[in-house]
Amino acid sequence: MKLWHCYNSRSVRVLWALEEMGFDYEVETIPFPPRVFQKDFLDVNPLGTVPYFVDGDVAMTESTAICLYLVEAHGKPDFGLASDHPDYGDYLNWLFQSDATLTFPTAIALRYSAMEPRERRQPQVVQDYAKWFLGRLRWLDRHIDGRDFLCAGRFTIADIAVGYALHLADIVGMAEHFSPQVTAYLERLRARDGFKRCQAVDPDQDPFKNYTPKFTVEPREKNQGAA
């Protein structure tokens, strides 16, 4: 197995899963975004995105899908759920919600607050998508209250998928608006040895190490009508 990885990008999900599951693998850390700073990466992955993961003849680009592949194709059921488990619907929903509902608006806010050239930054876009993200946390707020993990009372790749979304939101500067139960959940995930080992891989490549959020969002109580 080989993973192309950018520090604190979506490829964190895959690296974290590889560490938790104890696989032997090769990791190549590249600067973010690689399609700008390492153009020869386009010869490897024409999308120019990370993660990029290969396992024999298998090549994959989607972080949560790779985590699911590791569970199902490599026999790691302790990190997933079988289709006959009562929490299977929740498990699938969290896997898909982690990117489509949670990571997407945070990535937009990050892009237009810091990653674009100054003349292309859009404060109103940042505000709108930050509010969107915080509004979409309502499902997690309710679900995680009184639970340590999302499904089946144990750690699964659903926690990796959603945990990265929260980790990125913290980088962007939205963690101060998390509910107490979401804050505690993120702290539990970050305390895991697998996450710590993941974060120890080339931290000097962190593209956000000098990033300071340039925006604020209204308190969550005022965001209940957010779209």
Describe the protein.
- The chain is built from nine helices and four strands, in the order E-H-E-H-E-E-H-H-H-H-H-H-H.
- It is of the alpha+beta class.
- It folds into two domains: 2-79, Glutaredoxin (3-Layer(aba) Sandwich); 88-223, Glutathione S-transferase Yfyf (Class Pi), Chain A, domain 2, CATH 1.20.1050.10.
- A four-stranded mixed beta sheet has the order 2-1-3-4, with helices on one face.
- Helix 1 runs parallel beside helix 3 (63-73).
- The radius of gyration is 17 Å and the shape is globular.
What labels would you give this structure?
disordered C terminus; transferase activity; Glutathione-S-Trfase_C_sf; 4-stranded mixed β-sheet; transferase; globular; 48% helix; 9 helices; 227 residues; Glutathione-S-Trfase_C-like; Glutaredoxin; Glutathione S-transferase Yfyf (Class Pi), Chain A, domain 2; alpha+beta
